[in-house]
Specification:
The complex is a heterodimer of chains A (360) and B (308).
Chain A (H helix, E strand, L loop, with lengths): L3 E10 L2 E11 L4 E5 L6 H9 L6 E6 L2 E2 L10 E4 L11 H11 L4 H14 L15 H13 L5 E5 L7 H18 L2 E6 L2 H7 L2 E6 L2 E6 L1 H6 L4 H6 L6 E4 L5 H4 L10 E4 L4 E5 L14 E11 L4 E7 L4 E6 L10 E6 L5 E3 L5 E2 L8
Parallel strand pairs in A: 3-8, 3-9, 6-7, 7-8
Antiparallel strand pairs in A: 1-2, 1-4, 4-5, 9-10, 11-12, 12-18, 13-17, 14-15, 14-17, 15-16, 18-19
Helix pairs in contact in A: 2-3, 2-4
Chain B lengths: L13 H5 L22 H28 L3 H4 L13 H9 L2 H32 L5 H10 L9 H10 L6 H25 L3 H9 L4 H30 L2 H6 L7 H7 L8 H21 L1 H8 L6
Helix pairs in contact in B: 2-13, 4-13, 5-8, 5-10, 5-12, 8-10, 9-10, 10-14, 12-13
The chains are: A alpha+beta (360), B mainly alpha (308).
Chain lengths: 360, 308
């Protein structure tokens, strides 16, 4: 049994089944990220683990102990809230020492632990201030400090970065990653931002409608998504997914039989762009994966360029180019699709494993 | 039990009926000023209007204060006397004829204890409603408030009978219970809206930090909700102190509050304006002084947490 084991966890809000039988094992020291669109139940699942909502079905065990019905205070978990939820009437020091005081730790031990955490988080000069007198980033660090002084069994983070501005968010993300590496603490982290999920997680749990869509390392999810939802949720810009009837004939013939009425998925970096006719359309190298189209939009991001191209079949493709381009909207280009990196989905959105019988 | 007419409610307003408003002292104020820079007209008009309203509101109380120091004869003189030699005779007589201190003690005990009782009942209710909202929370709150729309007299007979059957007529206990219960809806509402201003995550954070329910309440909720509790308590204290309907009906010589003391000077032997005024002044003075000191809290409380 895993360190933290979720077995058939269920949650109902009135008649609505918000969490639908979640099974998940989390090993000691893992950094697990729950990710999914809003309303998918990721925060609810975290709150169920935290004990802030009652579990309506299934069991939850932590380190061999059944904590399904244990109150939050007896679960030995620490949580960092999106709104920080600092105690406004206490100093930073008191905020960070609160849990230790409740646990009845010795005063010298409390002082030592709080000061060590404050040093790690650059909070030493602010220990006597109240949260009101701190900036957003500092409050965030106090919230993290409040969690780490207790050395809990599991850290829970509920969208901890969404109240920070973009620059600070990136910086704090790096700090959290470093903190996890240094402390090696088991962590569950909820976010809707797949960049946070990809950069922080040792394993990502993609949720939709209260169910797990896929669990895997960030690159597993990127390279081998289980279905179209995961494929499109992970990665920016989104994976190109084009219905097979909008594919050029040559490409459509390569579709496995199960995906004949489904669609093809191709990451933007597997789409190359050449000026129309360049390299000779219909030449040997062209073949299956080459289509003509019109540039609709060019997004020059500096390090890379995103090209949005509409083909004659009416499909829109996004190409990610490593180099700059002189293309402008309205240009005629030809797309080279790297069919070896393509994923085929059946009409229900499931991935059809390669090597199945071809449709043609 | 001494039955008193119910329609004689707080008597501070009585003298005003005898005293036409034309006597506004402002009318005699000098209109010229010696300031080097003339006052902007608009400001002056506004200041005069503000003073006029303030004096208008204060006038009955001022008149009450004056009358309390007159003899009975001076009190009913027409035209009213502005200049007279003040006398303390009325106060002595009020104390001699009826035990002022007894009534005062009853007032203090009933209003303080009913406030404590009310807070003990209202705070847990407001906590539950603010932080563990259910499907019916809103409806329950509305229903509780709606009981305040009912005229108190509608519940008079059942409550009187209950008090009588339980041997509580003319006891402090009866008043404490009735005051607390009649203030309960407004207390729950006030505390509820104050508690709603506390982000629930702060309490959840305390739970995650290992706080038991009692620790969560004592170390987090109470410090954060202290402003709301204080203003709710203050308001309840004032409301209980001023309560006249139930004290007139449920108490008499033993447990009577200052409100009943005032009323007793208005009935049995005809009207004695000066003594009535003295009694009234003695009844309202403590709560007015108290109100002055707690004004800020009260105003904050009455804005229901809207102004922070």
């Amino acid at each position: 049994m895993a360190f933290l084991q979720l077995s058939g966890i269920e949650k109902y809000f009135a008649q609505h089944r918000a969490i639908r039988g979640i099974d998940l094992g989390i090993e000691r020291g893992e950094f697990i990220v729950f990710v999914g669109p809003s309303g998918c139940g990721k925060s609810t699942l975290l709150r169920l683990i935290a004990g802030l909502e009652r579990i309506d079905g299934g069991t939850l065990t932590l380190d061999g102990r059944d904590i399904t019905d244990a109150p939050s205070s007896r679960r030995d978990l620490a949580m960092v809230f999106q709104s920080y939820a600092l105690y406004p009437h206490m100093s930073v020091y008191d905020n960070m020492s609160f849990a230790l005081k409740l646990a009845g730790a010795a005063p010298q031990e409390i002082r030592a632990k709080v000061e060590r955490a404050a040093a790690v988080l650059d909070l030493t000069p602010y220990l006597q201030r109240t949260p009101k007198a701190l900036s957003g980033g500092q409050r965030q660090r106090v919230a993290i400090g409040r969690a780490i002084v207790r050395s809990p069994k599991v850290f829970l983070f509920d969208e901890p970065l969404s109240n920070l501005d973009a620059a600070l968010r990136g910086q704090t993300r790096v700090e959290i990653a470093k903190l996890h590496r240094d402390l090696g603490a088991t962590t569950i982290y909820v976010t809707h931002d797949q960049v946070e999920a990809m950069t922080l997680a040792s394993r990502v749990v993609v949720l939709r409608d209260g169910q797990i869509e896929q669990v895997g390392t960030p690159l597993e999810l990127y390279d081998r998504p289980a279905n179209q939802f995961v494929a499109q949720f992970i990665g920016t810009p989104q994976m190109n997914v084009v219905r097979s009837d909008r594919l050029p004939e040559a490409l459509r013939r390569q579709a496995p039989r199960a995906a004949a009425n489904g669609s093809l998925g191709l990451r933007p970096e597997a789409v190359a762009v050449a000026p129309r006719g360049h390299g000779g359309a219909g030449s040997a190298s062209g073949g299956a994966g080459e289509i003509g189209g019109t540039v609709e939009l060019v997004e020059a991001l500096g390090a890379e360029t995103l090209l949005y191209v509409r083909t004659g079949e009416g499909a829109q493709w996004v190409a990610r180019l490593g180099e700059r381009t002189r293309c402008v909207a309205g240009d005629e280009v030809s797309l080279r699709l790297d069919a070896t990196r393509a994923l085929w989905f059946d009409d229900a959105g499931r991935v059809v494993p390669a090597g199945q019988a071809l449709a043609a | 039990m001494e039955r008193l007419p119910m329609e004689r409610l707080p008597t501070e307003r009585l003298p005003i009926e005898r005293q036409p408003m034309a006597r506004n002292p402002l009318a005699r104020a000098p209109t010229t000023t010696r300031r080097p820079a003339p006052f902007p007209l608009a400001t002056a008009v506004r200041a005069v209007a503000a003073w006029a309203v303030a004096l208008l509101l204060f006038f009955p109380i001022a008149w009450l204060g004056l009358t309390a120091f007159k003899t009975e004869l001076q009190a009913v003189a027409v035209p009213p006397q502005w200049l007279f030699t003040p006398t303390l005779e009325n106060f002595h007589e009020v104390q001699a004829r009826s035990d002022y201190l007894l009534y005062a003690r009853n007032s203090v005990v009933t209003s303080v204890l009913s406030t404590v009782l009310g807070l003990l009942l209202a705070a847990p209710a407001a906590y539950a409603m603010a932080f563990f909202r259910g499907r019916w929370t809103r409806d329950i709150l509305m229903w509780m408030l709606s009981t305040k729309m009912m005229p108190a007299v509608g519940a008079l007979v059942p409550i009187y009978v209950l008090a009588q059957k339980s041997q509580l007529l003319d006891t402090q206990a009866a008043l404490i219970i009735v005051f607390a219960l009649s203030n309960l809806p407004i207390m729950v509402w006030m505390l509820y809206s104050h508690f709603r201003d506390i982000p629930p995550e702060i309490l959840e954070a305390a739970r995650m930090d290992g706080a038991t329910l009692w620790q969560e309440v004592r170390l987090v909720l109470l410090p954060l909700g202290m402003g709301g509790l204080a203003s709710t308590g203050l308001l309840c204290l004032v409301l209980s102190w001023n309560e006249a309907f139930w004290s007139l009906n449920l108490s008499a010589a033993k447990a009577g509050t200052l409100a009943t003391l005032i009323a007793s000077y208005s009935s049995p032997e005809g009207l004695f304006w000066a003594k009535l005024s003295a009694a009234s002044l003695m009844a309202i003075a403590p709560i007015v002084v108290f109100g002055w000191f707690s004004q800020k809290q009260l105003v904050q409380g009455l804005t229901f947490g809207a102004v922070k």
